Structure formats: C-alpha cells, structure tokens
Amino acid sequence: MAGKPKLHYTKGRGKMESIRWLLAAAGVEFEEEFIETKEDLEKLRNDGVLLFQQVPMVEIDGMRMVQTRAILSYIAAKYNLYGKDLKERAWIDMYVEGTTDLMGMIMYFPFQPADTKEKNLALIIERATTRYFPVYEKALKDHGQDYLVGNKLSWADIHLLEAILMAEECKPDILSAFPLLQAFKGRISNIPTIKKFLQPGSQRKPPTDEKFVAVVRKIFNI
Amino acid sequence: MSGKPKLHYFNGRGRMEPIRWLLAEAGVEFEESFLEKKDDLLKLQKDGSLLFQQVPMVEIDGMKMVQTRAIANYIAAKYNLYGKDLKERALIDMYVEGMFDLNEQLMSYGYQPADKKEQHFANMMDKATNRYFPVFEKALKDHGQDFLVGNQFSRADVQLLEIILMAEECKPDILAKFPLLQSFKAIISNIPTIKKFLQPGSQRKQPVREEEVPKVIAIFY
C-alpha cells in the first residue's frame, strides 16, 4: 500500500490524461492500473468500485473518486493550484472549462467516422484559433504576467499547456498568430515537474492511433 | 444597477436551469435577459460579453461568468452549498457531475429529431433508474441522513431534486423503486426557498414544447 494515487483507465489519453498532467505538475507520484479488455472493465463494475459504472476512477486519500472534473478539482485544491480565493477560482474554472471543450473535440476526433474527419479537423482548428486561443492570449496580454490567474501557477496554466500541445499535434504551427501563448508554452514547459513529464519514459500517453481506437471501442462497446 | 445577478439565456431550461435552481434556493433574486433570435446572440458576441462566444452567461459580482459549471461552482461556494471541507466537496462534485450527465440527457430530449427520440428516451430512463438514482438512494440509505453529504444541505441536494422532477415529467412513477428518494423529494421540496421556486409564477422554466424547438435552434445554429 503505497499511499500513492492509483489511476484506473485504458493505456491511452482519453479523459484521464488531464489528471495525469495535473498530478505530474504537482510532483505527485502515481500508479496506474490499465484496463485492457472488456472483462477488466466488467470486473471493476462488478466489484462495485465505480460509482456510476464509469472510468476514470482514481483511488486517492481513501476515496475511489470518479468523474473527471471532480477528480481534477480535488487535486487542484489539495496542491494549491486553484487560486487564492473564490474569484480566482471562478476564473480558473472558466478557463479550464474552455480548454476542456477544446480538448474534448480533439479527443473524440479519432473516433469519428472517416468521412467526417476532414470537416472535424477544420472545426477543431477554427475553434482553437478563433474561439479559445484568442481568449488566453488576451488574458496574458491584459495583465502581462506569466500565469493566467493571480500571478501564480494554477490548474488553468497546466490545462492550457496540455491543450496547446494537443492542438499542435493537429496543426504544428497553430500558435503562429499567438506570440504570448508561444512564450507561455516555453515557460510552462520548463517548470521542472512538467519538463520531466514531457520527457520520454514519463507516464504521459501518446496520441490515440487507429489501432488504439479499435481497442477502446471493444472495451467500452462503442 | 440593481446588483442582482443577471442571467443571459433563452427563455427555457437548457443549461441555465441548474443555475436558476441554485440561486433560487440560496434566496438570491436575479434578473433575466432572454435571447429570442440569433441577432440577440450575435449582439452579445459582438459586445465581447461572452468569453467563449457562448451562453449561459451570468453577470454576477462584477464578472461576466460563462461556463455552466464555473457559474454553478461560484454560486455554490459563495452561498455555502459546497460542504465544509475538501473531502465533502469532492463527494458533492462526484454526485453533481453524475447529475449534470443525466441532466444533459434529460434537457436535450426535447430537441432530438423525431427518429432519435424513442431511443434517447429509453436510454435516459435506463440511466436514471439503473445508473444514477440507485447511487443516491444508497447514499441516503447508508448514512440515514436527510441530505446527501455531510448531514448538511448542499448543492447536491438542490441538483438532485431538480433532476428527480425532470425525470418524473418523463415518467411519473420513476421513483417507484426508490423510497428514500421519494421522502428526500418531499423534504427538499419543502425548504421555503425551494417551495417558493416550485410555485407557479416563479422563474423556473418549463420543459421545451415541440413547437418552440425550431425557434431555439435558430438562435444557436
């Protein structure tokens, strides 16, 4: 019994990846138990350890937490990445919901029918460059500080870096019109815990390829 | 300038309804500005009032808040509906996220195309009775208290009542197998601010009627 958080999910990004990022950024070591087959998921369900029969599930501090946002909020608050007061928290929540929406689009992209892929990719790029990134670029421009909220590293910064890197996997020059986000990316990537997470051999997961899509479809029956 | 929160949305439930419930429960008077056509949405977007070009948007405490969960979290914390510590908050969040998932299905039902309606209905009833309600029934059974978390009223209780009532609109006897949820419903409905919100003439919105659907869709698409 290590006392380390234990993550239950597939061996891919999906909804668990943001949780891996946040734990890693906070310098928290964690274990992972991978769901590789439908039977693995059924076993978790039959054991009664999934509150709503779904993963992600994270064993942490004596709880079996489910629901991505609940887990992320708990980790953020526990490791002082959630701002200093209610208003900072409100801003962090707003920013994080935006990056969640953007990353959600990117996450579902490999699962979409082949004939919609081109259209969906175009929509992702459009949303990233006209709806989401301008907001974060402006936030950094308006206050001139290194971090999005309260002049201090928070969950919002970590989540934004994750979103930027995912978007760049879709279009490598996607930040070309966003100089402050480029600098932000450089800065946040250099934070020691994050730098470590970005290196090969870390628990960061690769983008989902076609082969993994098939595995996931089988496990979740989708 | 009234200082009251001001809600920007269309005149229906959608994603704003849980926010109306929380404000009403907390006894907070609020104003509403309704989007009736696309131009109304475009105007808000052009004014720069919508952080991500989307509603819900709530003007509150000098902020123009967007994103349903961010708004709901802020209101819950401000009015002490979010538990007493991190662990209670975690449990409330888990419950509430489940409720948001079910709410998404319940509130989008009215907007489904005719050929998808039956399947959607069956799926949401199945989820309500087999995935979500059993969890809350068990929670109440295990601790034997009136409220879901920490023996104290919280947002989880408000949001649970909301989805129970929405589910009952679809299937009136949906709580047949959940005796503790039935008594929970009665207890929470009788809280004075909630009782008031449940009366005709309050700002609670009705389920979307079929003939209204095209008008709502036209605002956003």
From TrEMBL, chain A:
Its EC number is 2.5.1.18. Residues 85-208 form the GST C-terminal domain. One of its GO terms (biological process) is xenobiotic metabolic process. The keyword DNA-binding does not apply. Keywords: Transferase. One of its GO terms (molecular function) is glutathione transferase activity. SUPFAM superfamilies: GST C-terminal domain-like, Thioredoxin-like. Gene3D superfamilies: 1.20.1050.10, Glutaredoxin (3.40.30.10). Belongs to the GST superfamily. Alpha family. This is Glutathione S-transferase. It comes from Sclerurus mexicanus.
Automatic annotation (TrEMBL), chain B:
Residues 3-83 form the GST N-terminal domain. GO terms for molecular function: glutathione transferase activity. Residues 85-208 form the GST C-terminal domain. Its EC number is 2.5.1.18. It comes from the Eukaryota. InterPro entries: Glutathione-S-Trfase_C-like, Glutathione-S-Trfase_C_sf, Glutathione_S-Trfase, Glutathione_S-Trfase_N, GST_alpha, GST_C, GST_superfamily, Thioredoxin-like_sf. Keywords: Transferase. This is glutathione transferase. It comes from Sclerurus mexicanus. The gene is Gsta1.
